[in-house]
Amino acid sequence: MSQYIELKQNGNIAEIILSRPEAYNAFNLEMITEVAKLLTQLATDNSVQGITITGQGKAFCAGGDLKWAIEFSEKSGSSFHTLASQLHLAIVEIRRMKKPVVAAINGTAAGAGFSLALACDFRIMEQSAFLRQAYTSNGLCINGGGTFTLPRIVGLARSLEIAAFDDPISSTQALEWGLVTKIVDDGTVLEASKSMLTKLAKKSTYSFGWSKKLLTDSFNNSFESHLELEREGLSDCANHADGQEGLKAFSEKRLPTFG
Question: Residue 129: pLDDT band by 50, 70, 90 thresholds?
């Protein structure tokens, strides 16, 4: 692992810990490249059924390292172009991964950290943490898939408000707007994430993978093509061992036991 990333595995749950606390876990090129590589590896690791992403110290992730970007090239556009390419690989890997990914927001999630959290399937946020898109306050536009995920979570009008004013979003406000799944006491977000992923691991991960794919792709497909994709998914799930167990358990009036 990179000096900026820690990986822990508790049973079938992997924890990616962003470990650059002196910079509030802001991404430089080496750090985000390692995150993208690690997500790619975990996506095909059969010993892992769920992933938590969190930060070390006071922040989840403060976004891209602006100091690094300025020093990287005389033209800042070049540095952001390079940094964004790796960030986007990580974002796509999260959205295409068939496993659940939880953002355990232990502190500030801003800029690319905000977008990274939005890309995750679920977001658990500590009471004192806050969200902020941050890009526009620095004369930049939202990146990391934020302009795709944000309006799909809170709607266009609210997204424009967040982009225009860039006010910090408290945990209470984030929950009210649907930006996070739940709020927990400070210091308990990792345990809450583990509990959620443990609960999900008892269900059919194969079914979850198909459901995640269908919901993600629903924004891009025509109605007719999406219906066909649903039919394909349903048939595939029914032929899978999990589907067979689920149907058998239903007929036998018992709870299923998925592998």
Answer: very high
Nearest to 148 by CA among 221, 95, 76, 211: 95
Name the one residue in this structure whose structure tokens are 């953002």: 103
Contact 63, 112 (CB under 8 A): yes
The residues, any chain, with a CB within 8 Å of residue 200's CB and separated by 6 or more, are 49, 50, 100, 208
Half-sphere exposure for 234 (CA within 13 Å, toward CB): 6
Contact 207, 215 (CB under 8 A): no
Which residues on neighbouring strands pair with residue 50, listed in sequence order?
13
Three-state secondary-structure class, residue 39? helix
Residue 207 CB partners (closer than 8 Å, separation 6+):
237, 242, 243, 246
pTM, 2 dp: 0.94
Q: For residue 240, give the amino acid letter.
A: H
Tens of pLDDT along 189-236? 999 999 999 999 999 999 999 999 999 999 999 999 999 999 999 999
Q: What is the pLDDT of residues 159-193, one digit of tens each?
A: 999 999 999 999 999 999 999 999 999 999 999 99
Q: Cα–Cα distances in Å, from 140 out to 32, 56, 136, 162, 166?
A: 19, 26, 5, 14, 12
